[in-house]
Each structure stands twice: as C-alpha cells, then as structure tokens.
User: Fold this.
Amino acid sequence: MRLSSPKINLITKLCMKASRSLIRDFGEIENLQVSSKGPGDFVSSADKRTEKILIDELQKAHPDHGIVSEEYGIINGSNISNRWIIDPIDGTMNFLNGIPQFAISIGYEENSEIKCGVIFNPISNEMFYAEKGCGAYLNNSRIRVSNKKKIKDALIVTGGPKYSSKIKDKIFSEYIRVSKNVSNVRKLGSAALDLAFVAAGRFDAYWQRELNYWDIAAGVIILRESGGFVDFIEDDKNFPLKKNILASNSNIHEELRELITKKDIE
Ligand code: IPD
Ligand code: CA
Ligand code: CA
Assistant:
C-alpha cells in the first residue's frame, strides 16, 4: 500500500478478509442459494455473508460509528458524525452470472463528507483506494483521470435502467443522445467499478440515474482524488440516499451534462 493511514489500513485489510469467502462463493455459483428481492434485483447468501464480516469488524474497530449498508440498512452509532457506507457486492448480477466484474465498496464519511474509500475487485485483485488530500491509488500505483478533451473522442460508461425503473424511456433517450455524440458507451454492471475506472483513466466519464448512496460513496472520493469531478444531476433533497451521478475527467463534464439533460450537439 502506498497510502497508509489508519482508516485505509483498516478497510483494505477488511476487504481482503471479506473477499476470501466471496472468492470461494464465486467459484461455486451454481450452489449458492439465491433469493429474489424483486424483478431484476437479486441478493445472494454471499452478499449477506460478506456484509456480516464487514459490519462485525467495523463495529469492533469503531463501536461508536454509524453504518449504512445495502442489505442490513442503517445502524445508528452513538457518534452521529462518523459513518461507514458499505456495499458488500456491487455488481451482484455479474457475480451471479460468473462475470468477474464486481467489488466490495466501503466509504467513510465525517459530517456528511466522504473522507476515504476502498473498492476491491477480489477476482482481478485490484484495490482502488483514496483518502481526502492524499491522492488515489490502484494497488501500489497512483492513478489519475484521463486527459481527453473532446467529447466526441470519449469512452463513457453508464448503467441501468433497472427492471423496476419508472423512467426507462428517459434513461434510454439519454443513452441514445450520448451514444450518438461520443466515441462509445459501455455498460459493465458495477457502479463502484465504473467510478474507479474513470478514476484510473480507463473511461473518460460515467453517468447513471437511480443509484443508491452505497453504490458510489467510495467511488466519489477515489474519483475526486484522481483529479476528476463528480456531481449529481437533478438530485432530490428528500431522498439523500438516492443519487443521479455524473462523474468525469472534468474536461468533458459540462459538455456531457448538456448532452444528458438537453439536446444533441451538432
Ligand atoms: C448495482 C450495480 C449496477 C447498477 C445498479 C446497482 P448491486 O448494484 O451498481 O451497476 O446499474 O443500479 O443497483 O445491486 O449489484 O449492488
Ligand atoms: Ca450490492
Ligand atoms: Ca450496488
């Protein structure tokens, strides 16, 4: 690890520990007991097992901190300004289909500001991490966003809509508008890794509607610390855990926002 701090050390070690059973489960996907949370949205026993390890260990290390976790929900700590935001498996659909594009994502927040985060893909063994003011890293190397300046040359990643989405038409029309005006658009199925890939310069930008806070909490700080820019399109203040995100290398940010929210560029 190039960046060493108590919080980063804790969560990177935690990811390694929790990933052991995840790797085993990934190797035996057919045997996993899968239950449906609703159309298009599955939860596996691997998800719950990983989450339990993460919550138990975080509570051991910081008994007073709060936790927001996808499956378990909100655990209020006695200390209201510090909380951990966990997605035990981001990219569940990939995981369940044997596609090695999924990650454990852990973000840490103080007074509503994300201070550090880790995104770990245990199959590719890629650990993305960052702490405010200290830069962003992939394993032992510093990462930076791409330098692409023209949106027509950009490779962009997005995701959704979910089966249950009520705004599918809007999402598809945005997808068409962006696709027509950039080099290409990909959908890889893990919001956390999508953000980490923009941070590492593999993609030039990422946007997606109808995300949850745990999908992106760690990715936001990793992206910012890699020199990128992230903000939220048309956020609803009444639902602070729901997010419509726009993240980029910062050069193409406004042009992309224009494309998403308005009209075709000539
Ligand atoms: C999902 C992934 C996916 C995104 C979905 C998320 P999950 O998280 O991040 O890329 O398109 O909106 O719900 O369910 O795999 O943790
Ligand atoms: Ca998940
Ligand atoms: Ca997720």
